[in-house]
Amino acid sequence: MSKESLKAEYLMNECDRVVKYCGSIIPQPQQERLQKLSQELQDAINTNNLSKMESQSEDARRELDNLPDEVKLIQACLLAIRQACAVAPTEANAMSDKLFRMLGAMESDDGNEANRLWSELQPDIQRWLNKELPSNSIVTGITR
User: Fold this and answer.
1) What's the CA gap between 47 and 34, in Å, rounded?
2) How far, CA to CA in Å, does 106 sit from each of 28, 30, 101, 102, 139?
3) Which terminal Cβ of the chain has fewer Cβ within 10 Å, N or C?
4) What residues in the chain have per-residue pLDDT under 50?
């Protein structure tokens, strides 16, 4: 796969993920634009149209940058959970559960529950976003 197609696939998946998990807090016109961009990126990948991949990737990046702050916060949570999953899967599962319960509370307009879950989740999210993950370095020169 080319660099352009990898970027296009990442952005396509990000558009889909944002609409799936945050649809209730994204304005309807923006949801429709994200879905359209995702489909156009998929079409460009399927036809291996590099120029279309590049232009649609730029549009998708702009649209993702213009998401509401709440959605960007949820994106940061998902990133922290992915990082935790690599090192501490049990903790990542607990964080994921709280995040999805918080999203459910937001969707059902239960602000108290959403705020309570966010206050529980926030320290873990901050810790994992600030944590350096161990690198997978290969030790050479081992002797007996």
Assistant:
1) 20
2) 16, 19, 9, 6, 47
3) C
4) 137
Q: What is the pTM of this model?
A: 0.78
Q: Which of 90, 98, 92 is nearest to 118 (CA)?
A: 98
CA distances from 30 to 22, 76, 112 (A): 11, 20, 27
User: Which amino acid, one-letter code, is at 133?
Assistant: L
* Residue 9: partners with Cβ closer than 8 Å, 6 or more residues away: 1, 41, 45
Contact 53, 4 (CB under 8 A): yes
DSSP 5-69: HHHHHHHHHHHHHHHHHHGGGS-HHHHHHHHHHHHHHHHHHHHT-HHHHHHHHHHHHHHHHTS-H
- Single-letter amino acid code for the residue at 109: D
Amino acid, res. 114: A
pLDDT for 12 equals: 95
